[in-house]
Design brief:
- The chain is α/β, with parallel strands linked by helices.
- The model has no long low-confidence stretch (mean pLDDT 94).
- The chain has 15 helices and 22 strands.
- It has three domains: 14-234 and 349-407, FAD/NAD(P)-binding domain (3-Layer(bba) Sandwich); 235-343, Flavocytochrome C3, Chain A, domain 1 (Alpha-Beta Complex); 421-506, Up-down Bundle (Methane Monooxygenase Hydroxylase, Chain G, domain 1).
- It is 35% helix and 18% strand.
- Helix 10 (313-319) crosses helix 11.
């Protein structure tokens, strides 16, 4: 199905811009800020401008601290990615890191400093040295709030919140804009260039650190348009989310806590990471998540513990004010008690295949941030490289758009989609979303089995068949259709990769 909605382009209300950017995380906002002010930009947000994965990011943003660090940083990145990384993209990430993080500072973002006023770098899992910039334990919030202020100062940028991108509009393998749903109904945002910066897909899982709007929409609309997706089997699970069976929402315990010395312990109080990796608690995320999953099976438990009680209480409160307060509200004083934690979905290394300028295989369609896949992360992302990726490649997208926009001539085209849909009940869409999340949690989680993946694919294909001609009446319905499409791709990709690599961990099926 090419489009999710019945429409005739000539009958729609048309909004005309030079550039349309879908998504208001770090990649979307920074792209808009780096595009020449002579170009008219539409910046679209599915919800509010703050409702993004970037806003929720706690830990920080990695950067090469000096020229001597570039080779070390590169090796840390590709080692964490199990050498599945695109070498050129990884080098671009590191080479352009300092320039772009300095630009954040120039834009007014406040990173933590030491007593002498120098930038304070910290260390996280997989890093050989301290190179993470941070703003307490709410780095993402600081970035989004500051970039939002700068966006509001731009006269060439129009921001539309609560506006849903249903599909990108294409003709002859060229993107000409976006079919959108706003309060006034269906509209067409026509543009010379379009950027998908919609973030991740965490909500296809039962438990995720992701924003509630991270449902893989950008991936799905790109796929329907014919854009290539790559490495979709590589889903990253964050090792340490606060375990609380009474609540469905997930609260992340930042990797920076382990960076400051926190230790993972099992129910016997043993520091178990010593038996899994030489870097122990600061091993790459795929290793730590797999190790925790193994411990949970051994102990037949639902969680392990994170222990930072050996650090001074005042230090903990100052360094991790949000984590300390949040845990205290749930009855846990982390300066005195272990924190119950378990792994949850966190990130997708795969995405829309792009080059290092964000170009897709569709003319005038770009992608940046988590939704894109340059191959920079390989099979497992190094901690705090996600915000950096959003910066580095967003700027390169903007540079390319600045270059090609004057050369693009608008064409009058006729696009229409005549669908014969069947009516579906609201609760059928709700049930489909819940089934997807259950299947992904049970069969496409950290430790995967071939039979489980085959079973998951069979279930998802049945759901897909049921909704193949479903009539979508609103955002939740569109979202459901996108979730179905993306989960099928993830499972099929996982089945094609028959050996474990990075975040894709295959285990033997038990004998019947």
């Amino acid at each position: 199905m090419r489009y999710l909605e019945k429409f005739k382009l000539e009958d729609l209300r048309k909004l005309k811009y030079d550039v349309v950017i879908i998504g208001t995380g770090i990649a979307g906002l920074y792209t808009a800020l780096c595009i020449d002010e002579r170009y008219k930009i539409l910046l679209m947000s599915k919800d509010t401008i703050e409702t993004t994965n970037t806003y929720l990011a706690q830990g920080g943003i990695a950067t090469a601290v000096d020229n001597n660090d570039k080779d070390i940083f590169y090796e840390d990145t590709v080692k964490a990615g199990t050498y599945h990384n695109d070498i050129i993209a990884a080098k671009v990430l590191i080479d352009d890191s300092f320039e772009n993080t300095q630009q954040l500072i120039n834009l007014g973002i406040s990173f933590d400093t030491d007593e002498e006023g120098n930038i304070e770098y910290i260390k996280e899992g997989g890093h050989s040295r301290k190179r993470i910039l941070h703003s307490k334990d709410a780095t993402g919030r600081e970035i989004i709030e500051t970039l939002d202020k700068r966006i509001n100062e731009k006269k060439n940028v129009t921001v539309l919140e609560n506006t849903y991108a249903i599909d990108v509009l294409t003709t002859e393998n060229t993107c000409i804009g976006v079919l959108i749903k706003e309060d006034k109904g269906l509209s067409a945002a026509l543009s010379k260039t379009t950027v998908i910066a919609t973030g991740g897909l965490g909500q296809v899982y039962k438990q995720t650190t992701n924003s509630r709007v991270a449902t893989g929409d950008g991936l799905a609309i790109a796929h329907r348009a014919g854009a290539k997706l790559l490495d979709m089997e590589f889903v990253q699970f964050h090792p340490t989310a606060l375990y609380d069976p009474k609540r469905e929402d997930v609260f992340l315990i930042s990797e920076a806590v382990r960076g400051e010395g926190a230790i993972l312990r099992n129910h016997k109080g043993e520091p178990f990471m010593t038996k899994y990796h030489e870097l122990r608690d600061l091993a790459p995320r795929d290793v730590v998540s797999k190790s925790i999953a193994t411990e949970l099976i051994i102990e037949k438990q639902e969680h392990v513990f994170l222990d930072i009680t050996h650090r001074d209480k005042d230090f903990i409160k100052k360094r991790f004010p949000n984590i300390f307060t949040h845990c205290l509200e749930r009855g846990i004083d982390i300066s005195k008690e272990y924190i119950p934690v378990n792994p949850v979905q966190h990130y997708i290394m795969g995405g829309i295949r792009t080059d290092t300028s964000g170009r897709t295989n569709i003319n005038n369609l770009f992608a940046a941030g988590e939704v894109a896949c340059t191959g920079v992360h390989g099979a497992n992302r190094l901690a705090s490289n996600s915000l950096l990726e959003g910066l580095v490649f967003a700027k390169r997208v903007a540079k390319e758009i600045n270059c090609i926009t004057p050369k693009i001539k608008r064409k009058h085209v006729k696009i229409e989609c005549d669908l014969k849909n069947k009516e579906m009940k609201d609760d059928e869409f709700v049930e489909a979303r819940e089934k997807i999340r259950e299947v992904m949690k049970k069969h496409v989680f950290i430790l995967r089995k071939e039979k489980g993946l085959q079973k998951a694919l069979k279930i998802i294909k049945k759901v897909k068949q049921k909704f193949s001609n479903a009539k979508s009446r609103g955002v939740e319905d569109y979202t459901t259709m996108n979730m179905i499409a993306i989960t099928e791709i993830i499972i099929e990709s996982a089945l094609k990769r028959t050996k474990s690599l990075g975040a894709h961990v295959l285990v033997a099926n038990k004998k019947e």
